[in-house]
Amino acid sequence: MFGWLAHQPYLLLSLTSLFWAGNIVLGRAVAGHVPPVTLSCARWIGAMLLLLPFAWPHLRHDWRKLRAHWRLMIVLSATGFAINNALSYWGLQYTQALNALLMQSSGPLFVALWSLLLFGVRLSWMQAIGIALSLLGVLTIILRGDFAALAAIQLNRGDLMLAAALCAFGLYSALMPKRPATHPLSLIVVTTGGGALLLLPFAIMEYASGVRPSADWITAVTLAYVVIFPSMLAYLCFNRGVALIGPNRAAPFLHLMPVFGSVMAIVLLGEKPELFHLAGYAMVVAGVFIAARR
Predict the structure, then answer these.
(1) In Å, how far are 161, 169, 269, 283 from 84, measured between CA atoms?
(2) Residue 102 near residue 274 (C-beta atoms within 8 A)
(3) Window from 116-125, 138-147, 255-264 with minimum mean pLDDT
(4) Taking phi first (over 0 means left), then psi (-120 to 50 degrees means alpha), and beta for anything else, what does residue 273 get?
């Protein structure tokens, strides 16, 4: 069964998007029940512990390389795991899961901007047009189709947190080509562990302030899902899918996240899709498509 699945890149990448979409919907569903920083910290601790037995032989071999790039490891841990995840869960307490799902498609926009700023990777005219169109789509979702709100600067703070989370993940993605040549499991264990360590003081502060998770089955199921599916299994499926068909062919599968997640948000959370959701998503996808063309 697993041998067959390991050679099905389209199924693996579809499962990745399904698991990550479920993470957003679940994060919205338990908003106010499980504190965001605690949830983020527990997610990465659990993922690291589950992956460690499989990664240990590779980690022993790669440790010197990883330690030599410790500054980069800290930045990757902070942007890709700590800041990005905590802001996402925090923002979901103030906005709809639909907004969060649709905004995920703007990820290439932030990657392109960071690549330009850090490494001088220049954009073609078509890429610039595509990024501008994607940005317009993001603004449409954030402003809920009411651009008059831009003048009044009355933005939903949850959407702003999600945009900041995507900006952090864009920096992580732009820096990934600079990572040392190690086994993927070694890198994931180190960065998830680093993300957990960075979040731990804030999780302790959150707990000390009285914001604590409820000790019930909802919390247990939430923690089990975020550790197993969007953390461990999703990354393993994604890495294997990219290894089989390459990153360029794998990237469009991330646009399945709004498809899977929107259905879950409407059915499970009772959220109502609006016209601005459709318009914003169409602009984001069109912009990404234009920017990705040769």
Answers:
(1) 9, 6, 23, 24
(2) no
(3) 138-147
(4) beta
Q: What six digits make up the tokens of 224?
A: 């089990």
Report which of 84, 104, 82 is spatially closest to residue 25, judged by C-alpha positions: 104
The residue among 165 and 235 whose pLDDT is bigger is 165
Q: What predicted TM-score, i.e. pTM, was given to this entire model?
A: 0.79
Q: For residue 275, with 0-12 CB atoms within 10 Å meaning exposed, 13-18 middle and 19 or more buried, which class applies?
A: exposed
Q: Which residue has the tokens 């790669």?
A: 62
The rounded distance, in Å, linking the Cα atoms of 33 and 29 is 9
249 burial type by CB count under 10 A (0-12 exposed, 13-18 middle, 19+ buried): middle
The rounded distance, in Å, linking the Cα atoms of 286 and 294 is 15
Mean pLDDT in residue range 237-247: 73
CA distances from 263 to 8, 9, 30, 133, 272 (A): 24, 23, 18, 25, 10
Give the chain's length. 294
Distance CA 137, CA 279 (A): 7
Structure token pair of residue 79: 């942007």
Residue 251 burial (C-beta neighbours within 10 Å; 0-12, 13-18, 19+): middle
Output the DSSP codes for 22-63: HHHHHHHHTTTTS-HHHHHHHHHHHHHHHHHHHHHHHHHHHH
Phi-psi region of 144 (alpha: psi -120 to 50; beta: other; left: phi over 0): left
User: Other CB atoms closer than 10 Å to residue 293's CB: what's the count?
Assistant: 10
76-121 residue pLDDT tens:
999 989 999 899 999 988 887 777 877 776 776 787 788 778 877 7
